[in-house]
Design a protein that fits this description.
heterodimer, A: mainly alpha, Cytochrome-c3 Hydrogenase, chain B, B: alpha/beta, Beta Polymerase, domain 2
Amino acid sequence: MEPRSEDVSRKSRILQALEDQNTSVSFEDALENDMILNMGPQHPATHGVLRLLIRLDGETVVGCVPEVGYLHRGYEKLAESSTFHEFIPHTDRLDYLSPLNNNTAYALAVEKLLGIEAPPRAQYLRVMISELARISSHLMFLGSLAMDVGALTVWMWAFREREKQYDIFENIAGARFTTSYTRIGGLAQDVLPETLAMVKKFVDELPGHLKECEKLLNTNRIFLERTDGIGVIPPEQAIDLGLTGPGLRACGVEHDLRKANPYLVYNNLDFDVPVYSGGDALARYYVRMDEMRESIKLIQQVLQKLPAGDVHAFKPKKVLPRKERVYTKMEELIHDFMIVNFGIEPPVGEIYSAVEAPKGELGFYIYSNGEGYPWRLKIRSPSFSNLQSLTTMMMGCMISDVVAIIASLDPVMGEADK
Amino acid sequence: MNSKIVDALKSRFGDQTVEATEFRDELTVVVPTEKIVEVCRFLRDDPALKFDLLADLCGLDMYTPVKRFAVVYNLYSLSHKHRIRLKIFTEEEDPKVPTVTGIWGTANWHERETYDMFGIVFEGHPDLRRVYMPDEFEHHPLRKDFPLMGIPGSLPLPKK
């Protein structure tokens, strides 16, 4: 290709200036230094296997193409050949920072399809575990955002708190990470009184620890300069791009499915929806910090109001019978056999059920043709939709802000890639 | 609320074009494939409906000789807090539907995903590439005739 004439003249001017040892030469337009930078999929700041192709002009981002799919495991295909119960462990691996929330969301979706409801105690406990999972996810956000902009202490402190939560999860579900705690129509088992005491201790102590972290960040000049006004997205664009969750609430849009379309027992509980109007990384940080305090409020109310009773609905042919009954009653043995081997018999129909997950709207669309397996199960994962707004947020920012913006969006690739 | 939405749709597009069903208080409306962009624009812009958020868009393989593939749109209104599900059908041979990226920007990736998984082509899409599978992959994994174990040789493996 022939070089353009202005390129030639500019080059000769540079050469002439070098020969003359003239350092005061200036150019109208910047030198052509467009660069394509490939970030990921293996990059510590991308929170998983997210790959970004960034076009840079100097240090300014002028274009960004996110690439997903490096963690695609085909859960939607797997769902079509596993019974409704068999799919529960797979939901742990969607947003692996808040598996309890995914378990709850999935159980609610199948229960909506079947037209059943979990007993009150199970519903309250589901609120409790969902909010614990939200805190766990937001603590991870807090730590990683602070670390990505250079404050390593907060990361350690956030992980210290998450460690306590994992001990609680272990007591609740028997596993720290992959909980698989909910069942269709209830929970795997009741929570022990000692565990509730642990939860109480944890939520009583957490506000103090959050304050400690805020002391390090809220007036920290480096932190503020790295996040204030960075990654701005206007509310109209955020809605157009399908941004939900804390990201949307940081743009001044008051939308929270727990308030808008209450599920479980959220309408019996008192909590606020934090909304900030900046639309930048700092606003997203503030929203999540406030949400953690709201979650603490919710958990404290659950601990007070928690009703006694069963955590498992008694719905033969729909809900797995309790093990002690399976071993002693003929009918329950038959139901157990049928549900485990052939699945529940749902009605023909299609439902979409969504909950407010820590990252946004987590929805399950189930199309059932009356068999024990879903004909189609679509997971509407918040991270997948949220990642689309990354390009808008990054336009015009500096290369060093890229990691701060990703951290402020808090994507989890297990969920985005399904 | 659901009946209001159906009435608004019927008065705008006629009784014959709108086919509404309800299940568990959820409204599903089947509309003609060629009308989808018009219907979506009406649903988004009408002040009484105002479905401003495309919550989800996905494909559905009915595995029937006619009308094999469906595209499902789950819409949500942030101001009115209601939902609707739209559905359009397309044939097995040369499945093509119009894109709604001009109405909701979020449709971009969701349509790419549907194309990737079902091979449904969205006409007018600005960047219709695969989103999960490798670009050189030839099949569409969520189709019912794609085996669960995969097709041997469809993904190139390193040589021994």
